Structure to design on (202 residues):
């Protein structure tokens, strides 16, 4: 009897049951395996996302560089076109200066031909053919005559040698061309010396 009392009954006054360590270890291993599987499943997507971002950044940088190089090329092309146009303008201006200087030195010859023609010396003969060829050569350079009778007086191309009060004149007009003027394009080589008809003074 005494021995029976010394051994408490099952579940009475005894310590709490010992946990099953094997079951807990198995559960922990299963959770770790699930977590590892989740990381493996999500890992490639994360890496792919990062790679796409890097690729997008590189493409954007390449596009910016290409746009910058294109802008530089367009600027250089515009500068070259401007330079070429400027060189062509300078070349043309230089050509006109040379022609103007040559023609100016030949104006006295043209004046002599005009006087000879006015006196009837160029009606026929070898000198007539020479005069025609000479005038044609001058005209081919672009030189034109300035000063025509009865045209309005223009101080930009006319030089008034004398004023003639003329009844019926309403404004200043060229009454007579004393010496023909010449111009090359818009460049005046020599103004025309003219007699100007003006309204009479009242």
């Amino acid at each position: 009897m005494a021995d029976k009392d010394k051994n408490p009954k099952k579940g009475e006054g005894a310590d709490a049951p010992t946990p099953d360590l094997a079951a807990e270890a198995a559960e922990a291993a299963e959770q770790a395996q699930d977590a590892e599987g989740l990381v493996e499943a999500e890992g490639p997507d994360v890496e792919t996302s990062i790679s796409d971002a890097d690729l997008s950044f590189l493409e954007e940088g390449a596009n910016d560089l290409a746009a910058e190089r294109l802008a530089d090329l367009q600027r250089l092309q515009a500068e070259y076109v401007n330079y070429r146009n400027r060189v062509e303008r300078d070349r043309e201006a230089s050509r006109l200066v040379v022609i103007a200087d040559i023609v100016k030195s030949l104006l006295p010859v043209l004046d002599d031909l005009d006087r000879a023609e006015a006196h009837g010396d160029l009606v026929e003969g070898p000198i007539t053919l020479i005069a025609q060829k000479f005038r044609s050569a001058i005209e081919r350079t672009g030189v034109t005559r300035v000063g025509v009778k009865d045209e309005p007086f223009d101080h930009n191309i006319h030089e008034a040698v004398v004023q003639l009060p003329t009844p019926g004149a309403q404004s200043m007009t060229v009454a007579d061309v004393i010496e023909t003027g010449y111009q090359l394009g818009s460049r005046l080589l020599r103004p025309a010396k003219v007699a100007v008809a003006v309204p009479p003074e009242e």
User: Anything to note?
Assistant: The longest strand covers residues 158-165. The beta strands are 143-146, 158-165, 173-179, 181-184, 187-190, 192-198.
